[in-house]
Amino acid sequence: MQKKRSNLLLKNSILRKSIFFFLLFVFGCPEHFGQSFPLWLMNQGDIRCRKTAVGFSLRSYYQDTSAVSLAIARAAEQLVKQERVSIVSLKSFWTTARGTEVMDNAFVEQFDTTLVPNIRESAAVLDTYISDDFVAVLLSTDNCKESFSKELINISTQSEPDWVTDIPQNDHYIYAVGSAPEYYYKTSSLYEAEKQAYYALAASKNAKLKSLQKSETIVEEQRKEEISVELYGVEILKRWRDDKEKVFYVLARMPKQ
Questions:
Q1: pLDDT in tens, 165-206
Q2: Which end of the chain has fewer CB within 10 Å, C or N?
Q3: Is residue 230 part of a domain?
Q4: Does a structural domain hold residue 25?
């Protein structure tokens, strides 16, 4: 009897998981990307707080508390990165009789991860958004819950903003736009677009400054080049999804130094 009961519980568990992943497949596919997002997620730069960051995570099959906790941890990482992060470009070249070719071009982010736990404990959770398939948490170093709107907007009906093709310019900040294709999981698209915005800021600063840490090593006919750029005070200002082209965009800025 006990064995039959255990088998029945196991079958029920497998059935529940099968239903869950079926629903995830149906409702988590890219064609269901169109939905309402909180205004603070799309227009983060309009929040009147000293520092803010948004963290994302996939919804948990078991309970949302673990997904929210993970999103908070990732938002804390974003706050640390915004303060200071090194973008390291690693390029590999191959020299042949026909000339030099780029074999690989990779970017690596380096930041002080030891600061994350303290930020996570001290920062205030301003709002939490839970959709059908992911969680977003708005974190701030200030407890300024009345300084932003929790209004939901339909991201599929938003027209293309000017900053997507006409990057802002002024005397105080360097602006950059990052983009990412629509992946199976929204969180991957959102994070990749942010990373590309950071890399674009680094490339812009690299083009303007000469005091870069640069090293080269030559191994036989292979040459490796490493360039490190320090970014300070990065802010994520805007997000936008191109519903037609299925691309996510992020606008970021940092002070000119």
A1: 999 999 999 999 999 998 888 899 999 999 999 999 988 887
A2: N
A3: yes
A4: no
